[in-house]
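Blinded run. Sample ID left blank on purpose so nobody reads anything into the name before looking at the predicted structure. Input follows.
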Amino acid sequence: MLVRLEIRDFAVISNIVFEPGNGLNVISGETGAGKSLIVDAINLILGAKASKTLIRTGSPSCYAEAVFDCSGIKDSGFSKMLSDNGIEDDDGMLIISRTVYDSGKSVARVNGAGVTNAVLKEISSMLVDIHGQHDTQAIFDESTHVKLLDRFAGEKCLKLHREYMDCLQDFKNLVLRIKEISSSPDYLERRREYLEFAVSEIDAAAFKDGEEEELYETKKKLAQNEQLFSSLSNAQNQLSPESEGISPVQAVELACRELGNAARSDDSLKELAERAKALALELDALSSDVDKALSDRNYDEGLKERTEQRIGLLYELKSKYGATIADINKFAADSKKELDDIEKNKDILRELKKDRAVKEKHLLEIAEKLSDERKVYAKKLEKAITSELADLEMPNAVFEVSFVRREKAKFFSLSGIDDIAFRFSANPGQEVRPLSAIVSGGEASRIMLAVKNVLSRVDLIPTLIFDEIDTGVSGKASLAIANKLKAISKDHQVLCVTHTAQIAAASDRGFLLTKKVSNGNTETLCSVLDGANKTGEVSRLLSGSDSDSSLRLAEDLINSFS
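Blinded prediction complete.
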């Protein structure tokens, strides 16, 4: 339960310490004194959205800290939740704090460990249940009714619902798979043709890993050989021209022959003849060597063309099927598998439809069990809440839980096969109507209190907070609400913000919030009400005065709850 709350620089609150005890703790005060700020601060501590508008004017931040005694929580899941989030259990005490800065950022800690808002909300779900005006509106939302019924029914319904949800997910997955396989036959045929073409094209190309690098290396070498081959060919042509005219070798040989003839007539020309002969031999040898060098290079024009074509084919396949040869071949492998699946689809579809019938039957069986179980507890809930409403000065009220079987097209919802909603009639002769048709704020508050009281018997949450549960009610109804809160407080710590004397009189511990204006600043103060102070506050709420008659009436009202 909550044992201490400290609030600093929070709206009009400069610094207050609030220490509720067991039983019924009631907070009262003048309009605008900041009674609901206590609830707002607890909400902030338990994960509500932070806003810099909460910060007191002139302060850089606001701070709220709550101390909870958790030694009475027996749920093993609570201890596990703490340990899973690195929070140490300090002898059953839990200190939760939250600081909001003027930048809009906030910092939350639990027993000194920093935590997220999600963790705070998880913790709060097991520590505190807050009912405010928003909750009164929430009960009008029919989507919440099945959850409330399951909470009342307890673990059996909750377990059946979890089992139903698991089966529903399996069933949905199966239906989706059937839908995928049963998609447009034209599409599947076009898909098959495309895959067959792709596989044929890739298999015909038969590219192997590493081949791309080999092709570009071959292309590079061919480019180098082409230039060399061109130079050697040109040299050969110059030495041994294939067209008209004579080659340099032949010219030198002719010159050598003529110089030989001349040397036989003139010995002085013998040296020239010898030189010509040597030159002829050297040119002949050079021509032979160039021929040999050319033939050794073995330049293949066809290889160049084949390499270019292969590279072009690879580029085309990469543009269609993948960035690398490995990707292209994987595409082919995946396509073959998909083609195989397409061929098998008829058999698969037949089996899936059989499986769907089995799963649908099983899902319906669980849904029917869940529906039957809910109907059993719905009768108990109707009886319990109708009884509570009678205690709350609504003796003729009728409360019903409506079950409407969903239409076949929308049969399986997340909650089951029934649309479940609460129905209510306040007066005899009136038909039961949806809760959303309730106009009276007093009726809405009492229905909510009745629901809370019934659920509190099965909930393990130690602290219940009611923010102005008495809105729209007065007189006997206020007294009935006070008695109901008193009854709830026997099993739970109850905190209640009120503006009625009856609830203030019923308190085990009362707190008064007052405003003080000093130097142009408004400040809220919190004081504990006991003895004469409590009597005076009840008197103020009764008549707005502290006359002797009002004080006596207040004292009698307080004593009626003793």
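Unblinding after everyone has recorded impressions. The two ends are 23 Å apart (CA to CA).
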